[in-house]
Write a structure and sequence with these properties.
Elements: H1 2-19, E1 25-28, E2 35-44, E3 53-59, E4 65-72, E5 81-87, E6 93-99, E7 106-114
Antiparallel strand pairs: 1-4, 2-7, 3-6, 4-7, 5-6
């Protein structure tokens, strides 16, 4: 019986470690000559019994995107979930969507690199 309790305890620790992760999105084909084209801090407060959502649109007809970093500033697993909706690496534009978890907010730093 004691070994069963220990197994259950270890399982709960593993589940906790898996749940407490950042939700970063990184899509990179970066070169040494690339420069930071755009940076933005995106933050939304929680709303009780709702999700928060926000889109970031970046476009530059004179640049090609080589790297997109959407970095979750909440490292406890409670942050949002970013996704690229259109454009991205190899394009001159990108639309990034961030959606919070239910009844949670989010805080991300977005960096876009290119040449």
């Amino acid at each position: 019986m004691r070994s069963m309790q220990m197994l259950l305890f270890l399982l709960l620790i593993c589940v906790g470690l898996i749940a407490a992760q950042s939700n970063d999105l990184v899509d990179c084909k970066k070169h040494d000559s690339d420069v930071l084209l755009h940076t933005k801090k995106l933050e939304r407060s929680y709303q009780l019994l709702r999700t928060q959502e926000s889109n970031v649109v970046y476009s530059n007809p004179n640049a090609i995107i080589t790297c997109i970093e959407v970095l979750d500033q909440r490292t406890d697993g409670t942050g949002g979930h970013p996704s690229i909706q259109s454009g991205g690496v190899g394009h001159n534009n990108v639309t990034i969507n961030v959606r919070s978890q239910f009844s949670r907010g989010f805080e991300f730093v977005i960096n876009i690199y290119g040449h």
